[in-house]
Specification:
Length: 69
Amino acid sequence: MATPYSHLIGTNRGELLLGTSSSYDDNWSGNDLIEAVGGHDTIRSFNGADTVLGGAGNDLIVTRGPPEQ
């Protein structure tokens, strides 16, 4: 059984953070906590109910539904 929530923390610049494992299957799902501590991070939230924190400037935050199959 997968972990019900993801908690992703980016501590350096230029990171790509993907919240993926917040449901009990392999689909992209919500309820992730994603923190970008350094600037210039790309954060993708693939479903609703995510908490996304951009810690410094120049972060790119993309929220959308699951990727097309």
